Fold this sequence. Notes:
The protein has 47 residues and is mainly beta. The protein has one helix spanning 32-38, and strands at residues 8-13, 18-22, 25-31. 15% of the residues lie in helices and 38% in strands. It has a three-stranded mixed β-sheet with strand order 1-3-2.
Amino acid sequence: MEKFNLKxxxxxxxxxxxxxxxxxxxxFVKPLWKTLLKNNPINPSSS
Length: 47
């Protein structure tokens, strides 16, 4: 994250979900399936 000067990042996992704050940077740990469902163009009602 430092190399690209990012303040936030995402780690996709099987089922773990949490929010980490490390060295004033936010890391979102999210299950891949939730991300895929949220961004599904076939099911626009899931936001």
